[in-house]
Task: structure prediction
Amino acid sequence: MMDPIPCHFYEDGQRKNGTLQLEENHLVFQTGRFKDKTKVPYQMIKAAQQDDQQRLISQIDIITKSFKKFTLDVSPGPLGTILTRVNGRSKAASLRELPAFKTNERVSVEEWDEFTLATEYAMMKVPNNEWKITDLNKNFELCSTYPKVLAVPTTATDFIIKGSAKFRSRQRLPILTYLHGNGGSIVRCAQPMAGANNRSEMDEKLLELCVDTSRSRSNGLIVDTRPMINAMANRAQGKGYENVEHYQKCSFEFHGIENIHVMRKSLESLEQKGWLSSDWLKHIYAVLDSVEKTQISRGRGGRGGQK
Result:
């Protein structure tokens, strides 16, 4: 561990006098009479870069992944050490270099069993009269990207469950994600392999059975979180979205949330001066609006099925 380096740094626009400590897993900024500390894990640092201007005091910008920025004024002596240490530690060459793998703390295997999906379902009082646990995916043969434990309507036969899986992208059939005390539930699945006019009676039946679990007997809401144009493009590739003429007791909505690539690009643009044009606020609104609409449907005891 190096000795503390005297520096000035700017946090939230305020200049502070203090020291910078390069610890094993953190940067530590220390200020004031009471030695207030701000710790920044190296893995939370996106970049550390030197101001190009030539001057007696060197300036370093440390930009974090949470959009916090520290600007340091340091003497030229420790400049290279700071940049090398910070940039080196913030970009681990392998998982084994991360702090979590360097701890000597002994952890019992049982601690990792604290979360199980079966326990989560039990907290929602599943299984019950409407929902059951199926072991069809115990060897990940039904859906390789789903957990072993799946909750489906009690009236759904193995034939219906398997038929639905065949009709869904990557076999991600409708399964219970959340069950409220009023009987309203949220069921998740992937897009159907509908194409231009394909259909599956088994998939249609499974969603109908999901709707029938509702105590209020209200219609289910199928939420496609994508923009409609994206779903239409996937339809041309043999995928697509549900035709509500075939899905009894269901209504359908697109919620217009962009894909992960658009979201990531927008997030990166937040750091630029023209951040408002990044559309980040529009994306956040779309997500929150989708959550609200789904929650309102669930609150009525209806089905909020999401893709």
User: Anything to note?
Assistant: Residues 113-306 form one domain.
